[in-house]
Amino acid sequence: MADARSSSATGQARQELTLTRIIGAPRHLVFKAWTDTRHVARWWGPRGFSNPVCEMDVRPGGLIRIDMRGPNGTIYPMKGVFHEIVEPERLVFTSTALEDEHGKPLLEILNTITFEDFNGLTKLTLHALLVSKDFKLTPQVAAALAGMEQGWSESLYRLAEELDNFLAAALADREIVISRVFDAPLEMVWDAWTDPGQVVKWWGPRGFTTTIHEMDVRPGGVWRHAMHGPDGANYPGKSVFAEVVKHKLIVLSHSGGKEGGPGANFKSTWTFKAEGDQTKVTIQMVFDSAEARDRVVREFGAIEGGKQTLARLGEFLAESIRMDSVKN
Q1: How many angstroms separate the CA atoms of 189 and 315, rounded?
Q2: What burial letters (b/e) apply to 110-123, b meaning 16+ CB within 10 Å?
Q3: N-term to C-term CA, the chain
Q4: pTM, rounded to two decimals
């Protein structure tokens, strides 16, 4: 969403711009991406620009210097001053650009950035106001003002990309991802996952059996079950469904572990995708830390266990299809 306005009077021009974006990251990370030069240098400026110099003293009165390098190698220096910093809610700073032959800035912009929590994501609002006085509306200045909306829009798009990449890299050390394609239609695979009477026939690694105490497959519903290992050990667990989209998605938070032994907590996301007459299922398990992930892999054999569970699901589906064909 954007709102750009301009007016002129007695030879002076004023322009302000408001942009609002929903960024797919919590606001403390979005705020960090605006105040950590390692992030800012990677997203500041329109597409094709880089920032060989990016210096910020993030405090009221602290100075900003960013030298943007255009695709043709031209350097566009930007200087600024922080005026207000309320972490993680608000940033206010002025920025100057386009110096004249005496080194005096031709443009000064007052920038106000607000960060609002939006269901775990961030609603970012940027307000840029031209505050320069007694300047000439030269073609160079007019071009800069005309390009302000596009420049900020592309910068915010690059900001979103930077945060996506940052979150993906941070997540990689904490997750386990396993996929398998089944020779069964999507509806059959979905029913095999959501019907307790079918789940007990395939859930868990080879040699395990499962007892289900309750299974309410809906957002907020609880699933309590216990897996029983071939050595007689029991593994009670409790899951709470966070999101259920029929034939597409199941998200749950799980806690459990070996009876009398260490436990494990993670968020599990199962996705279901039809591929012709087949169905692709992907499991993503996200742990609180890389250490927690590695411990579950080491002590519980989580990766191999997940693969064996999907293999058992495949065998169950194949047998169900065979039985249906016999009946028909």
Answers
A1: 12
A2: bbbbbbeeeeeebb
A3: 57
A4: 0.57
Structural domains of the chain sorted by starting position, each given as residue range(s) with its CATH number in brackets = 2-171 (3.30.530.20), 174-327 (3.30.530.20)
Q: What is the pLDDT of residues 140-184, one digit of tens each?
A: 666 666 667 888 999 999 999 999 888 888 778 889 999 999 999
Q: Which residues contact 222 (CB under 8 A, 6 or more apart)?
A: 214, 216, 238, 239, 240, 241
Residue 109 to residue 55: CA distance in whole angstroms = 18
Say if CB 269 and CB 251 are below 8 A apart.
yes
Strands (E), the chain: 2-9, 12-23, 50-56, 63-69, 75-86, 90-99, 105-118, 121-130, 175-182, 209-215, 222-228, 234-245, 249-257, 263-275, 278-287
Print the SS3 string covering 283-328: EEEEECCHHHHHHHHHHHCHHHHHHHHHHHHHHHHHHHHHHHHHHC
- Does the pLDDT at position 273 exceed 90? yes
pLDDT (tens digit per residue) in 65-97: 999 999 999 998 899 999 999 999 999 999 987
